[in-house]
Amino acid sequence: MLVAGYAQLPQSTGAGVMWRHLTIIVRIDTRSGLVVDASTTLATRVADAFVAELLFGADLLRDQEHIVTTVERAYFGNGRKAIVGAIRDLASRLRESGALPTEP
């Protein structure tokens, strides 16, 4: 299944100049609940790959805070708050979908 998370980008970022919002979209294996693919609307390949690699293999419901902490400690760009917001939105939408077992 596909789940998208959104957050507003600051206009001081490359992606913010092109788009108003950051989108992070993930493909979830509904049997395991794990992210099997991810993509963003971040402007650079490196930033997109950073987020995709961070999300690959993650359980967004159980690992959300670890993912957010990693972004806060390792991403030093103007889009950090937008990335965190989009990750939180992803987890919220996934939880609301009811498609996966809920958190323990």
Key descriptive features of the protein:
alpha+beta, 47% helix, DUF3870
What does this entry look like structurally?
- With 104 residues, this protein is an alpha+beta fold.
- It has one domain (2-97): Enolase-like, domain 1.
- The chain has 4 helices and 3 strands, in the order βαββααα.
- It has helices at residues 14-18, 45-55, 60-74, 80-97; strands at 2-8, 21-28, 35-40.
- The chain has a 3-stranded antiparallel β-sheet.
- Helix 3 runs antiparallel to helix 4.
- The radius of gyration is 13 Å and the shape is globular.
- The mean pLDDT is 88.
- Residues 3-93 form the DUF3870 domain.
- InterPro entries: DUF3870.
Short recap of the structure:
This protein has four helices and three strands. It is α+β, with helices and mostly antiparallel strands.
